[in-house]
From TrEMBL:
Species annotation: Sinomonas puerhi
Protein name, per record: Enoyl-CoA hydratase/isomerase family protein
Record-linked PANTHER family: ENOYL-COA HYDRATASE, IP11341P-RELATED
Lineage: Bacteria, Bacillati, Actinomycetota, Actinomycetes, Micrococcales
SUPFAM superfamilies listed in its UniProt record: ClpP/crotonase
A Gene Ontology molecular function term of the record: catalytic activity
């Protein structure tokens, strides 16, 4: 496995942790074949996310999206905890952001970058997934948690207003009544309850989390990336109630005629062989977008 620490992002795009007088928290990328892991790495503070960590998400994700060798992204925490959320010492600055950032500041920029990542994403949730940690998990396509994980959205405990993008995503997942319960009480709920509410795709024993998530990621990677990108974008537009849905659907139908994957899939099916799909996104020579 090749591990890449995002020092280049800190140096180029944000002040380093040391320059900001912060602790050792960082994002870390691990690559294993077609799978990338984006690891929230600040275990000494239960993977609380400092401002420079929030600011590292968008450039990190942009690089992974352009990489034709990466097909699936797993987001996880280090050391047995997904994330305790935004570092409480910096929460006001994180939510305020810079003058150029949108409502919700650095947190919303990171969350929208993850939600807009065009390749399939999986949140592997262990331990606590709270506040801004949940906002990141909620921005992933699929969420797999250990049976003893705890999920919470806690602005009521801090006297803050959750960013609109996160509220909208929560309502789409669980409906208004459950969203109100979670936001107004700040209660932590168990993973089985979170799955019943629609927050999680699956719960698994802690000992099998890595195995289950890796297996899911490789199944996603084995499929057509053209099909995955198309269906992910269409489902997201349907969920958001977009008025441009018909145009987007027509676009993907037109592009299907140019993608090599349809012919590859049909040939493999008829030959009873495993397809070796070729489409890798608009940065690939195989793509016609």
């Amino acid at each position: 496995m090749k591990a890449e620490v995002l020092r280049h992002i800190d140096a180029v795009n944000t002040p380093s942790a040391r320059e900001q007088g912060q602790g050792p928290g960082r994002l870390r990328i691990e690559r294993e074949g077609p799978i990338a892991r984006l690891v929230i790495d600040n275990p000494g503070r239960r993977n609380a996310l400092s401002r420079h960590m929030w600011q590292s998400f968008a450039p990190a994700l942009a690089g992974l999206e352009r990489d034709p060798d990466i097909k699936v992204l797993i987001v996880q925490g280090a050391g047995g905890t997904f994330s305790a959320g935004a570092d409480i010492r910096e929460v006001e600055a994180i939510l305020r952001g810079d003058s150029e950032t949108s409502e919700g500041g650095d947190l919303t920029v990171a969350e929208e970058a993850l939600a807009g990542f065009r390749k399939p994403t999986i949140a592997a949730i262990d331990g606590h997934c709270v506040g801004g940690g949940w906002e990141l998990a909620g921005a992933c396509d699929l969420r797999v948690a250990t049976e003893d994980a705890m999920i919470g959205i806690t602005p009521a405990r801090l006297g803050i207003v959750y960013p609109l993008s996160g509220i909208a995503r929560l309502v789409r997942l669980v409906g208004p009544a459950t969203a109100k319960r979670l936001l107004l009480t700040g209660d932590l709920i168990t993973a089985p309850e979170a799955q019943r509410a629609g927050l999680l795709s699956a719960t698994v024993p802690r000992a099998t989390l890595r195995h289950e998530v890796d297996g899911l990621a490789h199944r996603l990677a084995d499929g057509s990336q053209f099909s995955a990108w198309a269906h992910k974008s269409l489902i997201d537009e349907i969920a958001a109630g977009s008025h441009g849905l018909a145009e987007l659907s027509s676009y993907w139908q037109r592009e299907m005629a140019h993608s090599p994957d349809a012919a590859i899939g049909v040939r493999a099916f008829l030959a009873k062989e495993r397809p070796a799909f070729a489409w890798r996104g608009p940065w690939s020579s195989a793509a016609q977008i």
